[in-house]
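Hi support team,

I've been running sequence recovery on a batch of backbones for a student project. Most finish fine, but this one hangs at about 90% for roughly twenty minutes before it completes. I'm not sure whether the input is malformed or the queue is just slow. I've pasted the structure tokens below so you can try to reproduce it. Let me know if you need the job ID as well.

Thanks,
M.K.
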């Protein structure tokens, strides 16, 4: 499997190491920032005029640009959309602010999650595979979100240290992507040498605050309080098999203490939702993850074992269809898609993915049949609309294709594929302004600034001379 970086992503919570490595000797608390624990109040950033955007926003942006060069992010639109939906639920709980909150999945088999100071939150595929419920995953996102809203970066950044942003960005990116364990050891030794007890105290204080404020977002979003504690238990389980890095253990409070803290918060809360108002479909989400991250043969073996005891389980049937497709076994894949759909003809995942399976084998009319059914049952399933549009385009029905791709775009504005195919169709129809606009958006979402600028400029030119 192609991986840009299978190396050491050793920090669990970027913040902690970040600050123990940027010449920070004495954190200065910003007078305007509410530093009381678990306040859940917005940072002062939302009161700042445009010219005084939080300084860490620019820093975070630069670090992210650096990371994009070094790391590979997931390109599975189903996984990304699922994470986005959890993110949206959480952000409804966050007071107005000037951060640019977004959630990213990094292709890595290290266990890791971290927040950049501008609100870009990254976590690894390994983490997605390690959590056991949507609630557990949501709590990680809430904890990282709280690091940002509580302006932990700014509160730790010494105004006297005057480390320029570019240097910091390079440093953080260097830490995140360091492949060489000797480099990592050196960095850790340096950070621990600077002011060990002091840093330890502060990072633990902020971790507690992130747990507390994160917990507020978490229950506010309708997740069961127990889900946060479940995540801590998962962490304990992972600690026992020592895949949690030492840096994480030294900067975070002991997991038992975090569990106790969360239990106390839970007791204080009068009306914790007894039933989670979750997005659901977590079993399927895990199937998508495991197919992305594991060796298909190993996963097939597990599913075959499950199939022996649960031949009527729709998740097992769907999983088998997907993993056989991954392995290139067309016959068995069709067999299990059909078994799954026989059991439940309205299974939207099976309808959509069987449709995509047929599309990939150039069977556009058949694909259209399944995808159309999927869009009728699941009105928000952007990927079914996307492939339905593409099947119709292949069948020579550009108008229908435009309608469905546009619908898909509305449902998931951050998915670049829709813009690309809309651009192609408009180009073929000779509607060049629309074509350039869509291509521009496609490249901008893909992070190709140069190409994006080119297309936006071309679109503007047509504006001026509408010949
Ligand atoms: Zn943290």
């Amino acid at each position: 499997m192609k991986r840009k970086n299978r190396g050491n992503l050793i920090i669990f919570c970027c913040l902690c190491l970040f600050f123990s490595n940027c010449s920070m000797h004495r954190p200065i608390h910003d007078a305007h920032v509410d530093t009381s624990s678990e306040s859940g109040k917005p940072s002062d950033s939302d009161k700042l005029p445009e010219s005084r955007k939080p300084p860490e926003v620019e820093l975070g942006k630069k670090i992210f640009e650096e990371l994009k060069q070094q790391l590979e992010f997931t390109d599975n639109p189903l996984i990304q959309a699922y994470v986005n939906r959890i993110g949206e639920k959480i952000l409804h709980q966050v007071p107005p602010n000037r951060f640019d909150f977004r959630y990213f999945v990094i292709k890595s088999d290290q266990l890791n999650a971290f927040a950049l100071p501008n609100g870009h939150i990254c976590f690894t595929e390994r983490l997605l595979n390690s959590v056991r419920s949507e609630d557990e995953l949501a709590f990680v996102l809430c904890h990282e979100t709280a690091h940002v809203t509580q302006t932990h970066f700014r509160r730790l950044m010494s105004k006297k240290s005057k480390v320029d942003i570019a240097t910091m960005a390079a440093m953080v990116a260097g830490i995140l992507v360091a492949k060489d364990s000797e480099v990592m050891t050196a960095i850790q030794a340096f950070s621990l040498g600077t002011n060990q007890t002091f840093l330890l105290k502060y990072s633990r204080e902020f971790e507690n605050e992130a747990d507390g404020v994160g917990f507020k977002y978490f229950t506010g979003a309708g997740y069961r309080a127990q889900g946060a504690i479940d995540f801590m238990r998962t962490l304990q389980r992972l600690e026992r098999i020592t895949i949690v890095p030492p840096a994480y253990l030294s900067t975070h409070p002991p997991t038992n203490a975090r569990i106790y803290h969360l239990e106390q918060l839970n007791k204080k809360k009068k009306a914790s939702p007894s039933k989670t108002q979750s997005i659901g479909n977590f079993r399927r989400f895990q199937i998508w993850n495991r197919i992305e991250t594991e060796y298909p043969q190993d996963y097939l073996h597990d599913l075959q074992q499950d199939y022996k005891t649960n031949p009527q389980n729709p998740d097992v049937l769907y999983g088998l269809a997907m993993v056989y497709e991954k392995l290139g076994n067309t016959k068995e894949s069709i067999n299990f898609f059909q078994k799954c759909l026989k059991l439940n003809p309205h299974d939207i995942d099976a309808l959509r993915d069987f449709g995509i399976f047929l599309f990939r084998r150039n069977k556009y009319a058949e694909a259209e049949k399944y995808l159309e059914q999927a869009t009728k049952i699941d009105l928000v399933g952007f990927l079914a609309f996307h492939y339905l549009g593409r099947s119709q385009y292949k069948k020579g029905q550009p108008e229908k294709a435009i309608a469905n791709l546009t619908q898909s775009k509305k449902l998931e504005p951050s998915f670049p594929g829709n813009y690309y195919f809309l651009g192609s169709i408009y180009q073929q129809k000779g509607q060049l302004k629309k074509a350039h606009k869509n291509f521009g958006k496609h490249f901008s979402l893909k992070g190709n600034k140069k190409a994006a600028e080119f297309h936006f400029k071309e679109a503007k030119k047509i504006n001026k001379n509408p010949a």
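--
Follow-up from support: It reproduced on our side and the slowdown came from queue contention, not your input. The pocket of zinc ion is lined by residues 13, 15, 143, 147, 207, 210 (CB under 6 Å). No action needed from you.
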